[in-house]
Amino acid sequence: MTRQLHLNAFLMQNGHHEAAWRHPDTDPKRATTLQHYVELARTAERGKLDSLFLADGVALWGNVRYNSHNLFEPLTLLSALAGATEHIGLIATASTTYNEPYHLARKFASLDHLSGGRAGWNIVTSAGKDEALNFNRDARPAHELRYERATEFIEVVKKLWDSWEDDAAVIDKASGVYADTDLIHPIDHVGEHFQVRGPLNVPRPVQGHPLLVQAGSSETGKEYAARYAEAVFTAQQTFEEGKAFYDDVKARLGRHGRTPDEIKILPGISPILGRTEAEAREREAELNALITPEYGVRQLSNLLDHDLAGYPLDGPLPDVGTFTEGQQSRFDLVTGLARRENLTIRQLIERLAGGRGHRVFAGTPVQVADQLEHWFTAGAADGFNIMPPTLPGGLTDFVDLVVPELQRRGLFRTEYSASTLRGHYGLARPATRVKEHAA
Amino acid sequence: MTRQLHLNAFLMQNGHHEAAWRHPDTDPKRATTLQHYVELARTAERGKLDSLFLADGVALWGNVRYNSHNLFEPLTLLSALAGATEHIGLIATASTTYNEPYHLARKFASLDHLSGGRAGWNIVTSAGKDEALNFNRDARPAHELRYERATEFIEVVKKLWDSWEDDAAVIDKASGVYADTDLIHPIDHVGEHFQVRGPLNVPRPVQGHPLLVQAGSSETGKEYAARYAEAVFTAQQTFEEGKAFYDDVKARLGRHGRTPDEIKILPGISPILGRTEAEAREREAELNALITPEYGVRQLSNLLDHDLAGYPLDGPLPDVGTFTEGQQSRFDLVTGLARRENLTIRQLIERLAGGRGHRVFAGTPVQVADQLEHWFTAGAADGFNIMPPTLPGGLTDFVDLVVPELQRRGLFRTEYSASTLRGHYGLARPATRVKEHAA
């Protein structure tokens, strides 16, 4: 079988275009119900997609005056979707900066057990300024400190997942032995940030470890991904940038004792579909016309950590200095895009409105499939993070129009061949590392 | 309509009797699947019960060598059950000692939204010794300190739930206004334990506030319940003790500006059912015969914070001193029971095996209904926390045999008349308190 690509559906309430909720195709009140998400999950599963993904933050995002927000907390929502689906992977975002490893190890193990091995964790370090203020702090911890904590955090979580060996649950009614406690070990972790005795109060997850996903694109972020991540979500505007990122991350794996196929790199793409190219572009223009400029300026100001409210919309992006805090890679991407293409603030807002820095591509299903195939076969992607501009319509169109085209080309599965999220991504189940601790 | 009682199904993997998993009626492997819990939830809903409840701790409980443990984390499991049910309330345990208020406010709001107003929170302060060791501590915080933190914790959570006023979500496509930000307020909480700016990143829960449940029976615990709880789970061995507890808690409400009907008191009962009383007793003996004494001794030692491993099983309970740490009320209950009835260690273990200190009653459906009616009409209960000895059988029997008897007597609903958990318990939806903060 030829190498096949992997597809993740990145769900967001009304879609990824910031004006999606205002478009006639969306129903933003229905989008606040569980039923909306059940429908999306089933559509993605009908398309045989590898996984669903939910972003998250622990503060109110952006300006809710002008845009919808994620209503549901990802772990609770994905648990509800676990019962409504059978195959598709379920990836939830959770922060290592504002959580404790015992809780997250437990919750992801729980999601993995109740979904039969379909849980994934998108590890974030919470770059937002506002998040710190909800967790007993006056400011976010510095970038390097966040990653230091994230490193110890994931080590603790993996030890907890391994604290029950695979065969620990014996469940023998006759002898009265429920679990072989010789195979259950405290982890006795004592580190810089955490002191955790363990063991976890849940047997080893179905997948051994739920799938680990990461999206950091800074130097530290890429190094973290190369060490721990098994799938990487990334925002890349051009093929060249995408290829450079892909080669960079894959090249880093060796020094962590990993092979290039142990990590799947999935650039984001927001496909705006039409029967003709003209129809697709018309649809894009329709969405852009619904943008509230005040909202766009505020989002851009947050992204660049620089207040743009006083500048003319149709003038150039002023000097925003150099990166200070937040997401370095997104800062570079946005300022690079503005300079390279000489965009006005309004044009820049429009370019970002579709995917917050992720690539937006308007075209026919065949043109979209061409793009995916090109990046995939020319070494810039192992698959894609699909970010429909509107929901549910944009996902239904992708599943009904683009997926069959990819299947015809032999690039994508026509049936699920595995039962776990790791299985869909072609990744091995980690062996238990517990014996070292037990020695 | 006459006053009606409230029934909660307290779910546990194989049932509440500690030897349940060894009984021929249970299937302990199936009990580790989501489908087991879906079936239990649907059975309880068929019986028109008010709610389901899941206990929890953040360390491995008891000795898993001899007994099953809760596999799933309550919030993730109840989210999965939300999609599988339509009416029944969903009450999850979560600790105020090892969590942050922003996370719990968010997760319970999320469960409330996705279940259409059926979320409840059983507030615990984590008395266990082992839990502290999983959260960067060498020992559990002292009882009073835990309750101090719990008090500030619940105040922060309520402010966060109220940080969006009820009408904040406008969702007007034409004007482009998604939310009226004049109705969304930071909470700017700065206290002894927490500094939280807010607002929450979720609109106000369907119920205003998810139902607040508590089970503390110490002096501080009862005072906390009287101030905040809307339902109270409690372990009471005799009618007299139950009545004294009921009167005590109800009498405390006035000084918190609350009326007695604002709190529902639900003593636990594990009903062991038989077609005849003899059959019920035989079933109880059958379960007790499956107890592993080593397990019972260990559980009892933990409960009393006193190592009983060296004492003869058929001798009396030795002097265990006075209460030191852990659960004062459970210590008093257990030592009181042993002294009052002159029980040997083995007999005490058998008495506790059915419900860990909760009342066990073996009898016919009519006898069980008589007991419930007596406690209910004579002022010792507003309803009951039903703890089936085995699952699913014990719950199915209760629903099929006892519920119809209660319905015939006019003591229990024959159909749901409300759509929220608060509605089932006859409790009002709290008005938003946000205006005070906004002034």
TrEMBL record, chains A, B:
Gene3D superfamilies: Luciferase-like domain. FMN binds at residues 56, 93, 143, 147, 217-218. The keyword Oxidoreductase applies. GO terms for molecular function: monooxygenase activity; oxidoreductase activity, acting on paired donors, with incorporation or reduction of molecular oxygen. Signal peptide: none annotated. InterPro entries: Diverse_substr_monoxygenases, Luciferase-like_dom, Luciferase-like_sf, NTA_MOA. Residues 25-380 form the Luciferase-like domain. Pfam families: Bac_luciferase. Keywords: Flavoprotein, FMN, Monooxygenase, Oxidoreductase. Belongs to the NtaA/SnaA/DszA monooxygenase family. This is FMN-dependent oxidoreductase, nitrilotriacetate monooxygenase family.
